[in-house]
Write a structure and sequence with these properties.
Blueprint lengths: L7 H10 L9 H20 L6 H11 L1 E2 L1 H12 L6 H9 L10 E12 L2 E11 L1 H6 L21
Antiparallel strand pairs: 1-2, 2-3
Helix pairs in contact: 1-2, 2-4, 4-5
């Protein structure tokens, strides 16, 4: 299984998990759109060499995952086709049906030990968890804000 994109079979699994009928959707276009999003995020994450830990953590919080609600809105609904039941799906998005789902894609990351007293070096490994694994990971969402993924950077997020 590839770790740098979402394939058609994985999209079908995600659609079924959402209670959708894959035949009503343009699965190939959805997979392509999600995979381009992942590729863009991986490119962003690959450009952090030499950054301090705070900047890396902020960048990882922004580009280190593809939230389920974003996948549904940006990849599924926007890919259509027009005959797909996208209005009903948008109503579910608006009602928060996908807010507590784990991300459909998460960048593989690890934290290395302290490099000096009080300092922690955070590195990103290029790679991802496949959607089936990402969906089974414990949620990275905070209890008070299901739209925020990753560490809280400030109280105004």
């Amino acid at each position: 299984m590839s770790t740098d994109h979402i394939n058609v079979d994985e999209v079908i699994v995600l659609l079924r998990r959402a209670g959708l009928i894959p035949d009503q959707w343009d699965v190939a276009t959805i997979a392509g759109k999600a995979s381009r999003w992942i590729a863009d995020n991986l490119l962003e994450l690959s450009e952090m060499a030499g950054w301090d830990a705070v900047d890396q953590a902020a960048h990882l919080a922004e580009f280190g995952s593809l939230a389920a609600v974003d996948f549904i809105e940006q990849c599924v609904i926007e890919s259509g086709p027009a005959a797909a039941p996208w209005r009903e799906l948008q109503a579910r998005v608006d009602a928060g049906d996908f807010d507590d789902w784990s991300p459909v894609w998460v960048a593989d990351r690890h934290v290395q030990g302290p490099v000096s007293p009080g300092a922690v070096r955070r590195d990103v490994q290029v790679g991802v968890y496949p959607p089936q694994v990402a969906m089974s990971l414990p949620s990275m969402l905070t209890a008070d804000d299901h739209h925020h993924v990753g560490p809280r950077m400030s109280s105004t997020d």
